[in-house]
Amino acid sequence: MARESQHPILMKSSGLVLEDSAIAERIASPNGQTVLRLPDPHKSVDPIRQKYFNNLGDIARQSSIYFAGSAFTLLAGYLFRIAVARELGAELLGWNALGMGMLAVKKLIA
Fold first, then answer.
1. Who's near 28: CB < 8 A, 6+ residues apart?
2. Residue 11: in which H helix or E strand, if any?
3. What contacts 24+ positions apart, CB below 8 Å, involve 18-26?
């Protein structure tokens, strides 16, 4: 038999063996030890917990879509600036930058 431990979780070769827990389910392992198995939080019957995990999945999916869109926008803008710089040349690119700066100041004032 396994020796008593001060730790709440013990790792055994046959799987995860837990000490007493109010929410754990006691099952018998093939070697005769009592094993406590915690319930899967994703398969909970608690409607509040289920709603939490559904909302968490929605937030993660929407955040990843937003991040991918932002990364694409930054990359496309960078490539566009490189194309404009090659097409216009140094002098016209400077005038373009001056005009864009003046437009940004005008937007701040208005």
1. 34, 35
2. strand 9-12
3. none
Q: How many CA atoms lie within 13 A of 76 on its CB side?
A: 6
The tally of domains found in the chain comes to 2
Q: What is the pLDDT of residues 16-71, one digit of tens each?
A: 444 444 454 556 566 666 666 666 666 656 788 888 888 998 999 999 999 999 99
Nearest-angstrom CA–CA distance, 71 and 66: 9
The CA distance from 92 to 44, in Å, is 64
Host domain of residue 23: 9-39
DSSP H or E stretch at residue 36? strand 34-37
